[in-house]
Structures are given as structure tokens and as C-alpha cells.
Amino acid sequence: MTALLSSPTRVPAKPRRLALRAAWTLVGVLFIASFWGLDLEWAKLWELPSDVWHYFGLMFSDPDWSKLPEALFQTWRSVSMAWVGALVGVVLATLLGIPAAEGVGPIWVRLPLRWMFAVIRAVPEVIIAIILLTVTGLTPFTGALALAIGGIGTHAKWTYETIEATPTGTGEAVKAAGGNRMQMVRWGLWPSASPELMSLGLYRFEINVRTSAILGLIGVGGIGDMLTAYTQFREWGVVGMLIIVVIVVTMTIDAISGRIRRRIMEGAKSRDLDRIV
Amino acid sequence: MIAALAAFTALTTIPALGGVEIDLESIARNWSNGAQRVGMLLTPDWSILPRTWEPMYQTLSMAMVGTVISAALAIPLSLWAARPTNPNGLTRRAVRFSLNVVRAIPDLVYATILVAMVGVGTLPGVITLVLFDIGIVVKLVSESIDSADSSYMEAGRAAGGTQTQINKVTALPQSWPVMASQILYSLELNVRISAILGIVGAGGIGRLIDEVRGFYRYDALSAIIIEILVVVLIIEVISNGLRKRLR
């Protein structure tokens, strides 16, 4: 006892975390190897800030607003692609995603579907569009279809994850009352999962607004088309205007869609209730 | 609500306004044309593979360098953008707003403009990836700091720590797992994006995609797509495994 009291308090040694250190070393080695592999031009890297500043001046000191009507027309085309793509994609993804959820579909349905989603997720939308345009040509419809197909990959994954996360009680109750699988999904799972699925669907639209601008770069139309053209002409005033349009439109859509999503998830603010309480 | 959505959908499908013309007829008309191309896609020409190693290595290097640089920049920025770690409303809003602006521009649009600015090569690609990653990592991490349990930070403040000390000793260790997980996620996304950056001239395997597409070599295209697919899936499996261990 006395020995215990007299001995000075000792801080326990820090645990050695070999695995962590090894991981860090690996990251460092990979980083250096990749950096060498890229052989970036160092001279350019030093000139970069002044270059970017120079082009910023060209783009934003005097944006060329005379092309604004055309820009708005093309923006609407991009937004339309995004919306149609989101709508078709979300409907397909919901239909395919629900059977892929655990507790809904049997395993021989679940696994192939999940593999299909993973494969679609791995293919960028631009490549899907490149494949599709052999059939539908360079039209906004191709863009919308590419967004729809590309959207299935992620949205179906979110769908089955959402369905799996919903409480199983109501579904079991439907089963106990003699309902079949379809009825279980419709009356047991859908009512509790649908708000979240709707919200994710709108989020899909927000993502598609950005991707549709990218699809324009390969020529399916929309704001991306215009942006590539004027960047190649090096008409920086127009490019600056187009970037401002893209930023304003995207942020506005995000804000509106975000508000609707909050409304879906949390319901209306109940002012009357406050007054009563 | 439903009526509004239906009206919006109708508006987006009027070609005169710039909407999408739903042209199912063209699918039927061009089906034989498409079927031939799809036939080529289904018989991949593996002889292109030796030519893909170098651009694929470049793609992966770009993804790695982009992730590390953006991670280094994202750590201080996310502490700056969260309420508990930056009580100063003015700088917090400034950081958040500028990141919202950065996030509003799609990745390939950055790449196109940067290629025009600094020339064809991997440099514009890496900058694009860094900008894209900072946008999402900072948003997700700062939101998780916002919603995290801040009692440790209050304890730090009660003990008389400065904001920097509190951030370093409490907020940072607490948010490490989220941060690491988001950074891994951004690495996954980077591999996917850098595969197509080359289409606009920003380096990597996308350049090859653009080339074979120009020559209508759809059999070679499908070999490249399958290669990208395999690489992306491998990275996803590794990163999922690592992220599960982080939790």
C-alpha cells in the first residue's frame, strides 16, 4: 500500500499503432510515386496563379451580356434534360431498387440487381451518352436518357438502403394479416419510406443539373455545348457570363429543391399547434 | 404539389422552349444502326489494352495526387466552415458561400476552361479534381462537425483554451473518422472523374476514349470501358473495406 502511494503517478505509454503508421507510409509512398509519374511542368505551376488571375480578369471584369438570351434558352434545355432524366431514372430505380432490398426480394433477385447497379455506377454518364448517341443521335433526348440510366446506379442503391433502414414492424403486420409480397411493399414499407425516397429523387435532380451541363460538352446540347464552343473561340467575356449563369441557376435550384426536401422530410411548420400549446 | 410537378414536367418536354423532345421514333428508326454499334461493343477488342496501361496509370496518379492535395486543403477549411470550430460568423459564411460557388460548377466545365487557360495536360486535370473534392469534402465534414457532440469543446473552453487549441485537441480528433471516410470517398469519385477528364484534354485515359470514339472503334471503346469498370470496382471494394474499419 505504502509502496503504491509513494510511487509517482506514471502516464501509461502511448499505444503503438503500427498498422496506422504503415498505412500512412503507404499513402506517402503512393503520393510521391504518383506525383513523379505525372511529370507536371513545374515552370507552369509557378506561373499558374498569375495566369489564372489574368484569365479571371478577362472573364469577369467585363462579362458579355449580349448572349444572355441564348444562354438562358440553353440553360432551360439543360434543366429539362436533368428533370426528364431524373424522373425516368427515379421511377426505374425505385421499381428495380425495392426488390433488391433485403427482406423484400429473394437472394437470386437481389444479387444480380445489386451487381447491375454497381456496374452502372462505375460507368460515367458521359460514356453512357457516347454509347446511346449511336441510336438517338446528338439530341437532348440522348442526354436525358443517359442521365436516367446513369441515375439508376446510385438511386437504386439509395432506394434499397432506405427500404432496409425502415422499421420492419408494419411490413410484418401486413404479412401476419395474410398479405403477399406486393401488398407488404405497398402498405407496409412504401408509406414509411416514400418521404425519404422523394427527397432523394429531388436530390438526384440537383445532381443531374450539374451533370447535364457536362453532357453538353460531348454535344448533346444545353449550356455545356455553348460553354465549350465559346471556350474554344476564346471569347472570355462570354465564358465569364456563362459561368455566372451556371452558378446562379445551380445555386437557385439547389436552394429551392433543398427547401422542398426539408418540407417533405419534416412536414409543414404547424403554427396553429404552437398557439394551442 | 403533384399538379405543379406535372406542369413542370410538361414544360420540360416542349422542344420550342428548349425542352427535351421525346423522340421514341428515332430509336426505332436508327435501331439497326445502333444494334450494329452495340454488336461491336459486345465484342471487345482486347488488342487495345497495351496502349491503355500508361494513360490508366496517369489517371490513377491524377486521382491520388488530387485527393491528397485536396485533403490537405480541406482539413483547415472544414474547421473554418463549421459553427463549433469557428464562432466568427463572418468568416464562416464567407468560406461556406465561396465553397457553394465552387460546388455549383461541374467538374468537366472546370477542366474545359482550365485546359484553355494552362494548356493540354495533367495539370488542369489535377486542379479540377482538387476543386471538386474540396467542395464535397468540406461540405460533408463541416456538417458532421456541426451536428457532432460539442461538449468536449465546451470543456476545452471552460478550461481556458483558445479556439485554435480547442480545435486541435478536441474537434480534430473527433472528426478524424468522418474526414478520412469522406476523403476515401473522394478518391473513388476521382478515379471515376479522371477517367473522363481526358475527353476535354485534361490527361488520363479519357484521351484514348475520345480517340477511339473518333475512329468509330466501338470494339476498342468497350474494352477500355470494361477496364475502367474493373479498376473502379477494385478501388470501391478497397475503400469500402477501409471505411468499414474506420467506423
What are the SSEs and their pairings?
The complex is a heterodimer of chains A (277) and B (247).
Chain A: H1 2-6, H2 18-38, H3 42-60, H4 68-97, H5 107-122, H6 125-136, H7 140-165, H8 169-176, H9 181-215, H10 223-232, H11 236-266, H12 271-276
Helix pairs in contact in A: 3-11, 4-7, 4-9, 4-10, 4-11, 5-7, 6-7, 7-9, 8-9, 9-11, 10-11
Chain B: H1 2-12, H2 24-29, H3 31-42, H4 49-81, H5 89-104, H6 107-118, H7 122-147, H8 151-158, H9 163-197, H10 206-214, H11 218-246
Write a brief caption for the model.
The complex is a heterodimer of chains A (277) and B (247). Chain A has 277 residues and is mainly alpha-helical.
Tell me what you see in this structure.
The complex is a heterodimer of chains A (277) and B (247). Chain A is mostly helical. Chain A has a single domain (64-268), classed as MetI-like (MetI-like fold), CATH 1.10.3720. Chain A is built from twelve helices and no strands. Chain A has helices at 2-6, 18-38, 42-60, 68-97, 107-122, 125-136, 140-165, 169-176, 181-215, 223-232, 236-266, 271-276. The longest helix of chain A is centred in the last third of the chain and has 35 residues, at 181-215. Chain B has eleven helices and no strands. Chain B folds into two domains: 2-41, no CATH class; 45-246, Orthogonal Bundle (MetI-like fold). Chain B is mostly helical. The mean pLDDT of chain B is 85. In chain B, 80% of the residues lie in helices and 0% in strands. Chain B is globular and about 75 Å long. At the A-B interface, α2, α3, α4, α5 and α6 of A face α1, α3, α4, α5 and α6 of B.
- Give me the number of helical elements of chain B: 11
Count of distinct structural domains of chain B: 2
* The CATH architecture of the largest domain in chain B: Orthogonal Bundle
Radius of gyration of chain A: 27 Å
Structural class of chain A: mainly alpha
Separation of termini of chain B? 40 Å
Identify low-pLDDT runs of chain A.
273-277
Mean pLDDT score of chain B: 85
Q: Helix-strand pattern of chain B, N to C?
A: HHHHHHHHHHH
Order of helices and strands of chain A: HHHHHHHHHHHH
- CATH fourth-tier homologous superfamily of the largest domain in chain B: MetI-like
Q: How many separate structural domains of chain A?
A: 1
Average pLDDT of chain A works out at: 84
Largest sheet of chain A: none
Please give the count of helices of chain A: 12
Largest beta-sheet characterization of chain B: none
* Percentage of residues in helical conformation of chain A: over 70%
CATH fold name of chain A: MetI-like fold
